[in-house]
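S., here's the first fold you wanted:
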Amino acid sequence: MNISYELVTQEDQQLILALGEAVNEEFVIPCLSSDGQKAMRNARKGDIEQATNTEIYTSIKAVKNGAIVGYVAWRQGNYIAQLYVSSKYQNQGVGRGLIAEMLKRSGASSIELKASVNAVGFYERLGFQSVDTEQVKNGIRYVPMLLKL
């Protein structure tokens, strides 16, 4: 698959927001209680909008045929705050490619994240390990994970 990886720009914000919200609704929201669904929807919009704030995040988009098909946003050098891949492009190496690009650009020797429960298997296939049991905060379920290189 011919994918290019580029820095996210301010002009990408609406496309990034739409992609993140669509993936959340399809894969994350169904795994949550009604309280968790409400909390996730309230938190995610602001979080996703922040992905283009270069003072906080470094963000990379995956582009195929001029369309954004995924992105990763990280802060503090090695903490992935967001990783979204369009459902049409999942299981095709886009997420793996985004993490590889993040590692190349950040130079990090480890990666930390809080995986949505639906994404734990994906991260485990990449070598991430759970560092604690499943957690719940405001009804949002996640698993703290770490990849040591």
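And the second, which I think is the more interesting of the pair:
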Amino acid sequence: MKQYLFTGREKNALKKLFIQKVQATITAEMELLNLKIQYPSQFQNRINSLPPSPLYLTDNTNLVEIMELISGLFLSQRVVTHAGTKSPLTEIGRAFEHLFNIKLGDVHKKHESVIKRKPSKVTEFLDTLRKAIAEESKKKGYL
């Protein structure tokens, strides 16, 4: 359907031109929606093209505990990028989100919540992990 733009000099010329442009925008949006319906695979989000991880956290695992691991790796600078540079906190957080199928939200706020905890709780989860490894080592006769 061919549309002709109104270019007259009447009193309502700007209003009519605006209405025509709005109608053209709506028509274009409807065409785009029709294409989305006909060819949905072409409109899928490429960011989520990775398959989901088979790993999930148990219900009694808190996100702040996972954030202890992320903060420890970030602060120790034990994780680097493919270029060998220091890995940003957000990248390490994003990797853990994909690994465990979780959403951490604002990683920097969670990092601060780990850092500012009471001294006895700053590394509570890491201490639990250390204890579990020591117990297994003792059970197998290595300690």
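Why I say that: Residues 13-38 form the longest helix (26 residues). The chain has a mean pLDDT of 90.

Talk tomorrow,
H.
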